[in-house]
Specification:
The complex is a heterodimer of chains A (399) and B (616). Chain A folds into 2 domains: 3-270, Aldolase class I (TIM Barrel, Alpha-Beta Barrel); 333-398, Arc Repressor Mutant, subunit A, CATH 1.10.10. Chain A is built from 16 helices and 16 strands. Chain A has helices spanning 3-10, 46-64, 86-99, 119-128, 142-148, 154-166, 184-196, 214-220, 229-245, 265-271, 309-317, 331-342, 359-367, 373-377, 385-389, 391-398; strands at 15-21, 71-78, 102-112, 132-138, 170-177, 201-206, 249-252, 255-257, 275-279, 284-287, 290-291, 297-298, 301-305, 323-328, 349-350, 380-381. Chain A has a 9-stranded mixed beta sheet with strand order 7-8-6-5-4-3-2-1-9, sandwiched between helices. Chain A has a 3-stranded antiparallel beta sheet with strand order 10-13-14, with no helix packed on it. In chain A, strands 11-12 form a two-stranded antiparallel sheet. In chain A, β11 and β12 (297-298) form a beta hairpin. The radius of gyration of chain A is 21 Å and the shape is globular. Helices cover 26% and strands 32% of the residues of chain B. Chain B folds into 5 domains: 4-190, Rossmann fold, CATH 3.40.50; 203-287, Elongation Factor Tu (Ef-tu), domain 3; 306-377, Alpha-Beta Plaits (2-Layer Sandwich); 384-489, Alpha-Beta Plaits (2-Layer Sandwich); 492-604, Elongation factor 4, C-terminal domain (Alpha-Beta Plaits), CATH 3.30.70. Chain B is globular. In chain B, α7 (318-331) packs across α8 and α11 (512-529) packs antiparallel against α13 (596-603). Classes of the chains: A alpha/beta (399), B alpha+beta (616). Chains A and B meet through α9, α10, β10, α12 and α15 of A and α12 of B.
Chain lengths: 399, 616
């Protein structure tokens, strides 16, 4: 078995690295992410975090063996990555470089809280090799931010965006719509404010109130009222209208970019089933089908790490891996995931990639205005604006 | 049984006592029966399982006896051994025919009444039947150990009812055994021995017939004349069918084969037949080669009173349901069914039952013993529709109610007797009026208890009348009813339409005055039960072409998860798989997906919502 033959399997796919930083200054009421704030005992393991993450990288390199290849994208998320200082984030990026290598034109993103960055820290990130920063703006309306328990001052967003630009970083803004108490007008205010900052990229997510969160309890006790689905749909349509008018094109259900180059390549890798390794507590990883050194096939694997930072650090300190659970993925699972992910993209997917031929269902979805008819005739499944809001129904119908 | 004088087939009739226990569902009949088995030594204490005589789990759970059985017990009075046959009777109105046959097999009855609750309507009905059959009644108050027992009060009530002295009312506790020996003595002393002609052609009455997986049909008989012996050929007098008598015996408390059964004796027969319909309750058994000239009389074919559709939740279970019904029918001659196909629910069966309890038991057994998840449509009665051209249509399924010109519609009615404390007279009158009842007589059983007679449409009774009676009388009201012919009524069919398409399973025949309330309640319920879909769904109630109620389920506009990044993928895929599985269970009405739960909930009679509209 020559190296070239092996290269033809995994190496056809891009490789990306996700790094999860599980710390925040405060826990927001709606957040169900794996993150810890001061006062929670897990927060104390912050000091061990970078060493543990670097140690996981070393193990990852060994596991991937000859499938190992330079990262095309790196994304540091959380939590609040900027809870670590810029030098620590730089050290993590260097870890990726030393472990797998980094493509010359790699996209390197860090999420950031507008409050926890400075002109200097953003400059440092750029010098360390970061190319992009994604700010959690969420809203420009004070009462909405208050409900979300976001502490940042809306004015800080403009300042942070300005600093990032000065540092030469591409900027993305994350927005949340459908917060209890938020009106369509409130949402439009936030959209206008975001657009006025001229970011390269905007993500807009409907707020999902999870049952285990503080906001979930408030909802259960009737202290807040969820925004109904129809209003959420209105808000989504308003986002698409305003962003399109401002020159942003949707490329995934919840994501818009000024140009194709400014799309988030790291996230596109998730949606097109590339390989990625998730470093950090609770991080998920996925490696597509490949083969071992003797040529025998290795099926696709997904796994996730132990959630608690202290357990994560101690597992790695003991020379073990950090895996909590591995999920076996059947061909059917992968096929369903492919449709579920790719249908959300503006480029859609070829009709022929569906697990089964479904001409009647496709015709029905076209007739119902969920799928774009012209694209379907050209052999692609592409959601219409109405279809984007009904993407899950479309996936169920097509699989 | 060691005493040779009371060996089966060799017991003189004067040493035999045949009796039953008449009691309301939870008045402790089974506990008392178990206690008797213990005291007479038939059942060793260590083998006693609570309510030994109730065979089926379902009976144990509901605390009621569905199939009666007969147990033979020895009991000595003044040094003389007697054989007591205790015939267990069902207590529910649905099984009144079986009750009447059990009573016909006895010379006496223990009237068992809870000393804390007093007599109930069904017990009263069965007591009348027993007295009609000239049975000797032994009045007994049970559960006298309960702190809430009020034996003096109820002894007076019983004494007045059967015309005896208050001190003749025995007081027992089946639970502790108190007074049970004295009761057994009374059975021997008061109940007359059976009388029959030993050398006449054999006549034995079938009072129960049970299917057993291993033995086939087990038939319970009471010999009136002559005798039955093993290996004889017997004949059923209603059909003249002959069978070989493979085994004959008594239950004590397990089946024990005997050399036969003589005059007045009670026992079981096994002939190898597999279907209870070949060995029918009420029929007379005779010898094939020495037939009796006349049957004992009293036999009648079971007549279904209530119909409902049964559909498997999962359409592919249809063959399983068919086999299950075939098997149930081996054990239940009263159950009738024929295949039915519903646009909404697919293939199933329209089943006829003796009443609502019978319906529930059949459905429970299908779900429990055969593991089939079922949707049952709302119960309905049989309507006779006379068309203007004189044609008469019998409607057992509301969706088949004819559309043409109708001259009149007839519905079955029942004579109901309702027993309540007198403070609830007004409440009962109100309820019966809402249900189109005609008041008859009213009798005071005592100063505080009243028996009210009403003629009611059966359709109103099978709906949720009993539940309503119970809840409005705080549990004190009790009900008994019997068929009393039919009446004409202003009945209409209400259809429920989803997106303009009638859903056959939801069609109902109701009185014109109640049609609007029914329509509103159904469309309101369905609006909440059906999920929003990608298009608007009008839900309408209609009489013919006239829409009487309407609701709309608005189209869903958003059905997409906000985020789908690396860590979300597994969760999202599993969610989609779950949703897809849920979608498969959906019943499709046109393009509308209706969850099976919607059928169950919309058709359930226990929802008060449907009644509120009817209240004046």
């Amino acid at each position: 078995m020559s190296d070239e033959a092996r290269l033809s399997v995994a190496h056809e796919r891009d490789f990306g690295v996700y790094i999860h930083v599980p710390f925040c200054a405060v826990r927001c009421g709606y957040c169900d992410f794996n993150t810890y704030a001061p006062g929670e005992s897990e927060f104390s393991s912050r000091s061990d975090y970078v060493a543990a993450a670097l140690s996981e990288m070393a193990g990852a390199r060994a596991t991937m063996g000859t499938d190992s290849r330079p990262a095309r994208t790196v994304f540091i998320g959380g939590g609040t990555p900027t809870m670590l200082d810029a030098s620590a984030l730089g050290a993590l990026l260097n870890g990726v470089r030393d472990t797998w290598g980094l493509d010359a034109d790699a996209e390197v993103t860090s999420e950031a809280n507008p409050d926890s960055v400075t002109r200097e820290s953003l400059g440092e990130l750029a010098s360390a090799g970061f190319t992009r920063v994604s700010f959690g703006m969420q809203s420009a309306v004070p009462h909405v931010l208050a409900t979300l328990e976001r502490t940042h001052n809306p004015d800080n967003v403009a300042r942070a965006v300005q600093w990032a630009r000065e540092a030469g970083l591409a900027v993305s803004l994350d927005l949340i719509y459908g917060t209890p108490g938020e009106s369509l007008a409130d949402w439009e205010t936030s959209l206008d404010a975001a657009i006025a900052l001229e970011p390269d990229h905007v993500s807009a997510y409907a707020l999902v109130i999870e049952s285990g969160t503080r906001m979930g309890s408030q909802l259960r006790r009737g202290e807040i009222e969820a925004v109904d689905l129809d209003t959420q749909a209105d808000m989504y349509e308003a986002a698409d209208a305003k962003l399109s008018a401002a020159g942003y094109g949707w490329y995934e259900v919840s994501n818009w970019a000024k140009t194709d180059d400014q799309r988030c390549r790291h996230n596109i890798a998730y949606w097109t089933s590339q390989d990625w390794w998730g470093i950090g507590p609770g991080a998920h990883s996925y490696l597509g089908p490949t083969q071992s050194a003797d040529g025998s096939p290795i099926p696709a694997r997904r796994w996730w790490n132990v959630k608690l930072p202290r357990a994560y650090a101690s597992r790695l300190a003991a020379g073990e891996d950090a895996i909590a659970e591995t999920e076996p993925l059947s061909a059917d699972d992968l096929a369903l995931e492919a449709v579920m992910l790719r249908l959300r993209l503006a480029e859609g997917m070829p009709v022929g990639d569906l697990p089964e031929r479904r001409p009647e269902r496709i015709a029905a979805l076209v007739a119902d205005g969920v799928l774009d008819g012209r694209a379907a005739l050209a052999g692609r499944l592409v959601l219409t604006l109405r279809g984007r809001l009904l993407a899950d129904a479309a996936v169920r119908a097509l699989t | 049984m060691t005493d040779a004088r009371i060996e089966p087939a060799a017991t003189a009739p004067e040493l035999i006592r045949n009796f039953c226990i008449i009691a309301h569902i939870d008045h402790g009949k089974s506990t008392l029966a178990d206690r008797m088995l213990g005291i007479t030594g038939v059942l060793e204490a260590r083998l006693q399982k609570a309510q030994y005589l109730d065979r089926m789990d379902i009976e144990r759970e509901r605390g009621i006896t569905i199939k009666s059985q007969a147990v033979r017990m020895p009991w000595e009075v003044e040094g003389k051994a007697h054989a007591l046959n205790m015939i267990d009777t069902p207590g529910h109105v649905d099984f009144s025919y079986e009750v009447s046959r059990s009573l016909a097999a006895c010379e006496g009855a223990i009237l068992l009444v809870d000393a804390a609750q007093g007599i109930e309507a069904q017990t009263l009905a069965n007591l009348y039947l027993a007295m009609e059959n000239d049975l000797t009644i032994i009045p007994v108050l049970n559960k006298i150990d309960l702190p809430s027992a009020d034996p003096d009060r109820y002894a007076a009530e019983l004494a007045q009812l059967i015309g005896c002295e208050e001190d003749e009312v025995l007081r027992v506790s089946g639970k502790t055994g108190l007074g049970v020996e004295a009761l057994l003595d009374r059975v021997v002393r008061d109940i007359p021995p059976p009388v029959g002609v030993a050398d006449a052609p054999t006549r034995a009455m079938i009072f129960d017939s049970v299917y057993d997986t291993y033995r086939g049909v087990v038939t319970y008989v009471r010999v009136v004349d002559g005798s039955l012996k093993p290996r004889e050929k017997i004949a059923m007098m209603s059909t003249l069918a002959t069978h070989d008598l493979l085994e004959i015996g008594v239950i004590s408390p397990e089946p024990k084969p005997t050399k036969g059964l003589g005059v007045g004796e009670v026992g079981y027969l096994i002939t190898g037949v597999k279907d209870v319909r070949l060995s029918k309750v009420g029929d007379t058994v005779t010898q094939a080669n020495n037939r009796a000239a006349e049957s004992l009389g009293g036999y009648r074919e079971p007549l279904p009173m209530v119909y409902s559709g049964l559909f498997p939740l999962d359409g592919s279970d249809f063959p399983v349901l068919r086999d299950a019904l075939d098997k149930l029918q081996l054990n239940d001659a009263s159950l009738v069914y024929e295949p039915e196909s519903s646009v909404a629910l697919g293939f199933g069966f329209r089943c006829g039952y003796l009443g609502l309890l019978h319906l529930e038991i059949v459905r429970d057994r299908l779900e429990r013993e055969f593991g089939i998840e079922l949707i049952s449509t709302a119960p309905n009665v049989v309507y006779e529709v006379e068309m203007e051209d004189g044609k008469i249509v019998s409607v057992t399924n509301p969706s088949e109610f004819p559309a043409g010109k109708i001259s009149e519609v007839r519905e079955p009615v029942v004579e109901a007797s309702i027993l309540v404390p007198s403070e609830f007279i007004g409440t009962v009158m109100e309820l019966c009026q809402e249900r189109r009842g005609q008041m008859g007589t009213m009798n005071y059983l005592s100063e505080t208890r009243v028996e009210m007679h009403y003629t009611l449409p059966l359709a109103e009774v099978v709906f949720d009348f009993f539940d309503q009676l119970k809840s409005r009388t705080r549990g004190y009201g009790s009900l008994d009813y019997e068929p009393a012919g039919d009446q004409t009524a202003d009945l209409v069919k209400v259809d429920i339409l989803l997106q303009g398409e009638a859903v056959d399973a939801f069609s109902a025949v109701v009185h014109r005055d109640a049609a609007y309330a029914y329509g509103v309640s159904m469309v309101t319920k369905l609006k909440d039960l059906i999920d929003r879909q990608q298009f608007e769904i009008p839900i309408q109630a209609a009489i013919g072409a006239r829409i009487i109620a309407r609701e709309t389920i608005r189209a869903i506009r958003k059905d997409v998860l906000a985020k789908c990044y690396g860590g979300d993928i597994s969760r999202k895929r599993k969610l989609l798989e779950k949703q897809k599985a849920g979608k498969k269970r959906m019943k499709n009405i046109g393009s509308v997906e209706v969850p099976p739960e919607a059928f169950i909930a919309a058709l359930s009679t226990s929802d008060d919502g449907s009644d509120k509209g009817k209240k004046k």
